Amino acid sequence: MRARRAAAWTAGLLSIALVTTACGGGGGEPGGGAATPSGATITVNGTEPENPLVPGNTNETGGGKVIDALFSSLVEYDPVTAQPANMVAESIDTTDSRVYTIRLKDGWTFHDGSPVTAQSFVRSWNYTAYSPNGQQNASFFSKIQGYDQVHTEDPDGTAGPQTAPQPAAQEMSGLRVVDDRTFEVTLSAPFVVFPTILGYRAFAPLPELFFTDRAAFEAVPIGNGPFRFVSRQPGVNVVVERYEQWPGAPKPSVAGVEFRFYESAEAAYADVVANNLDFIEVIPPSGLAGNLYQTDLADRSVSRTFLGVQRLGFPLYDARYQNPQLRQAISMAIDREQINQRIFGGTRPPADGLVAPDVPGRIPNQCGELCTYQPDRARQMFQASGFQGPIELTSNADSGNAEWIQATCVSISNALGVQCTFVPVPTFGEHRSAINARQLSRLYRTSWVADYPSIENFLNPLYRTGGSTNDGEYSSPAVDELLARADAAPSVEEGNALYQEAERMIIQDMPAIPVYFQSFQAGWSERLQNVTVTPFRELDLESVTVSDN
Amino acid sequence: MGRYVLRRLLQLVPVFVGTTFLIYLLVWALPGDPFAGKCGERACPDAYVARMREEFHLDENVVGQYLRYVGNLLQGDFGQTFSGTSVGQLIAAAYPVTLRLAIVALLIEAVIGVVAGVLTGLRSGGFLDNVVLVSTLFLISIPVFVTGYVLQTVLGLRLGIIAPTVSADASFGELIVPGFVLASLSMAYVTRLTRTSIAENRRSDYVRTAVAKGLEPRRVVGVHLLRNSLIPVVTFLGVDLGSLMSGAIVTEGIFNIRGIGGLIFRSIALREGATVTGVVVLLVIIYLLMNLLVDVVYAVLDPRIRYV
């Protein structure tokens, strides 16, 4: 009996040992985290980048904010007004809005010491546009002459058996290097907003290393921005430090930034309140309820709109939604001000047009009557339209949208006297799948956040025939023609006037109902001073200062 | 005993194959395209989707993908996430953290639960018994996220005793409060299980015999009574370690612990089959080994139990 008991204990210990070794992985701590270097560094809330840190392949915010710290583009946007201004570019000249001559400033280097040349830009743009490289941001180059030669589409969609044909060329014919500091861009059609879009991260230059050893670049990304890469611990953080040779201005005063990934916004918020984290740009609902954050973060929070608009789209490929009167009626049945007050505590202004506040080129109240709550007129128009059946709205349920959509539904029901229901789908992925596949038969939630600050970015991608996010398949020859004329305008001012005219024309058709303008609430720790939060919802890392304690 | 353990270990193989294949099938069967939500409100460009599908072999049928995955796994390669991070590295970073959290939680629930259970079981019906009954009822009826937020707000934000979140190192000290939150529900079960078991066995013949033999009460309770009464408790604790490892999503989210819970949640949302499978494989192995450990401990507690 004694022997058996000893055997039992041994076996017991053996299985404990197996359990711990099976999952312990040696228990060695990975990485080592951020050993705070000299000078004060700050921590900023972030999320795990969804792709390797390559500018042409990143368009989500988690990786985007790291890339914006690591890279400087030709143009940057003012952290307050979002107006574009030259950064790496010394001048961007054109006479016909079609051929642009771009001259670079002297003295710019990548973090490995190699110079930033015209070649760096041209090579990186060609790489991103070339379709076999499969970069997410390739379509930003579609205005450049020769894009159709380097970027081919899959003839039967990605789900079909066919594959995209090999592109005829590797380089766009519209890019020509003149000398080390000058290059010329020829567009396939005039596009007056082109200098503005150059501030988007897809247009950042890539160093030689990227093309020779991509794996090494992805392990240690090398940019030309105000900060350089230090370390990355998957699931935990990305650490960058100030690049002393950065020639831009103003030079950052913080010694480095740790982008720390949080499992939830609530946890990050709690850390900001306790001064464990320096900046968060998404205060969670628990902090917004009853404006708790204003007491928790007295004098260290801000609430403002950013360049985004929330919309309800119509699937115009469904025959039932063809009548513009019907779409206008539903728009006028929504009590936007009440939703703003009741659901959002007054932080999300009712949409009065298709273009968000602070966007250069925007003028207010473009929507006028059609975005104003008029239940009687809405009901008349709705009944005249002969729409059958209930009105249904759909959205993904994994983000905080259910409340305002339900409130919108109630408003529509009351005004039109017809049943309105909210039909959620579980995830954003499923929601987008249905939209991308054009399989909807209900109104759907679709928001838009600007890639670059221009009225053009709120019109061309969304409402032009074949636009990259024209999910409802809206098509109007008159609008297309007007947008093309605006693109070809000789100056940005003249272009904007035409874009505004197009906006008014689109609103009459109401292919999507603008409901409210997005806003965000940001908070920061007691260590930070001179906090500027950009209209892109990011902390301006160049102007922020930090007290050293 | 040795043969028994060996046989149980061999059973790992079919269970391992079955679970990994099922997980693969389930991830594959999730609705929606993994690349549908990746590019925001825009549809992802064809070229990007085509490249990713080719890189991750998503065009092959599920059996082919599975065989490739298992082949790599046998060579110690857990594959990559869509963002190019090695899954093995992610798991190696997350597992020790979750394991530490689970051990802290298990210790808390075992010690507090068994002590409270024994005390109340010996004096059932008394004042202490009622206090514990009410407080365990209280614990069972409160969801974990309430306990978590309340403790985080009170101890972390209002009183400033602890940091509201756990750092990337996640030392044992930092994990005490999250461990308590995670353990709170099971602690109540352990208490009640122990109490019932003790109260029942207290009236059994062998305890009466032991008392009649004139043994001192400490020995009667500690050796004779407790050993028999602990069998259901040990079963519960063993299975619970498995669920603590996998079920900590809420607790890990509240305290920002970079463990398995959050990893598995994110991977399911992004439909990263390789990560989900890798994590689940390890969870399955832990469950099986814990069950084995529990069965073996039975023999220690009750020598009448034999293994053949």
UniProtKB/TrEMBL annotation, chain A:
Residues 85-469 form the Solute-binding protein family domain. One of its GO terms (biological process) is peptide transport. InterPro entries: Peptide/Ni-bd, SBP_5, SBP_5_dom. Residues 150-172 are annotated as: Disordered. Gene3D superfamilies: Dipeptide-binding Protein, Domain 1, Dipeptide-binding Protein, Domain 3, Periplasmic binding protein-like II. GO terms for molecular function: peptide transmembrane transporter activity. Residues 157-170 have a biased composition (Low complexity). Pfam families: SBP_bac_5. Keywords: Signal. Residues 1-24 form the signal peptide. GO terms for cellular component: ATP-binding cassette (ABC) transporter complex; periplasmic space. PROSITE patterns: PROKAR_LIPOPROTEIN. This is Oligopeptide transport system substrate-binding protein. It comes from Pseudonocardia cypriaca.
TrEMBL record, chain B:
SUPFAM superfamilies: MetI-like. Keywords: Cell membrane, Membrane, Transmembrane, Transmembrane helix, Transport. Gene3D superfamilies: MetI-like. It comes from the Bacteria. One of its GO terms (cellular component) is plasma membrane. GO terms for biological process: transmembrane transport. It is a multi-pass membrane protein. It holds the Pfam family BPD_transp_1_N. It is found in: Cell membrane. The chain crosses the membrane at residues 12-30, 97-119, 131-155, 175-194, 276-301. Residues 95-298 form the ABC transmembrane type-1 domain. Belongs to the binding-protein-dependent transport system permease family. This is Oligopeptide transport system permease protein. It comes from Pseudonocardia cypriaca.
